[in-house]
């Protein structure tokens, strides 16, 4: 009976010690599931040893006691087994809850890491999208600017083409006027020569054919002098005029002087452009 009472007292204190060990060792959120599993396995070993001793004690008591004591021992044994089963169930339930809580915490930590990584990647992608949008806007503005410049250059080219056509027509007109002036001056010179011959017949008779030659050469020199005066550069008065000033359209400067002039030397109109005229 003393041995039975001692075993019974050890059995009664066993779950309490196990619970206190679990609390002291912090098998919950502090100690982790690994320490808890190790402690549970050690407790299970102690339970197995206890059952083995209890079975051995029961066999010993069977030989020493009668039928009355067997009844009592069986009741105590059933009670102890029931307590052990309840303890194992409670420990299993506690272990299940602890493992569930640990998995929950691990999932929360994993979710936080994934969220932080995802937020970082999203911020990075947003920055890339903003940069790409700004770059697209810059390229669109540049494209619009280039299109406007292209249209402006096309207008300038069309204006220059129209101006070239107008200048060519003007040059042709000037050439025709010069040709007609030369023809008219020749006719006038011939008429004046005839009049001079009628009025100064005596003088012309004395001078003979040499007088007509002198008049013709004098008129020709005068025409050449007028033509040279008209076509001479109005800046240096040395070279022929070959540059047409715009927008006044005066052919009044040579190529060398045109580079230094800011305005037309005839009408003083500010020079916007100049074109070299190829006059043969």
Automatic annotation (TrEMBL):
Coiled-coil zones: 122-177
Residues forming the RING-type domain are 233-268
Q: Does the keyword Nucleus apply?
A: no
Q: Name one Pfam family in it.
A: zf-C3HC4_3
- InterPro entries in alphabetical order: Znf_RING (IPR001841), Znf_RING/FYVE/PHD (IPR013083)
Is Zinc included in the keywords of this UniProt record? Answer: yes
Q: Which UniProt keywords apply?
A: Coiled coil, Metal-binding, Zinc, Zinc-finger
TM stretches of this protein: none
- GO MF annotations in UniProt: ubiquitin-protein transferase activity; zinc ion binding
Name-wise, this protein is: RING-type domain-containing protein
């Amino acid at each position: 009976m003393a041995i039975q009472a001692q075993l019974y007292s050890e059995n009664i204190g066993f779950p309490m010690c196990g619970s206190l060990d679990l609390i002291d060792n912090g098998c919950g959120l502090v100690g982790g599931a690994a320490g808890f599993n190790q402690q549970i396995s050690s407790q299970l070993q102690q339970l197995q040893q206890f059952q083995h001793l209890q079975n051995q004690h029961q066999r010993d008591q069977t030989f020493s006691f009668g039928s009355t004591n067997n009844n009592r021992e069986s009741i105590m044994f059933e009670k102890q087994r029931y307590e052990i089963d309840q303890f194992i169930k409670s420990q299993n339930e506690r272990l299940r809850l602890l493992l569930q809580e640990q998995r929950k915490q691990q999932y929360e930590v994993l979710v936080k890491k994934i969220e932080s990584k995802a937020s970082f990647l999203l911020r990075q992608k947003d920055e890339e999208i903003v940069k790409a949008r700004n770059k697209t806007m810059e390229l669109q503005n540049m494209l619009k600017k280039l299109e406007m410049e292209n249209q402006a250059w096309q207008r300038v080219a069309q204006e220059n083409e129209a101006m070239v056509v107008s200048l060519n027509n003007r040059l042709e007109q000037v050439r025709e006027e010069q040709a007609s002036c030369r023809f008219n001056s020749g006719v006038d010179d011939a008429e004046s020569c005839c009049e001079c011959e009628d009025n100064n017949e005596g003088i012309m008779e004395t001078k003979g054919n040499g007088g007509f030659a002198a008049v013709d050469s004098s008129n020709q020199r005068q025409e050449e002098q007028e033509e040279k005066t008209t076509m001479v550069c109005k800046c240096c008065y040395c070279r022929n005029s070959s540059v047409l000033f715009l927008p006044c359209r005066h052919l009044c400067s040579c190529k060398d002087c045109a580079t230094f002039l800011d305005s037309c030397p005839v009408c003083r109109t500010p020079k916007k452009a100049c074109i070299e005229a190829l006059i043969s």
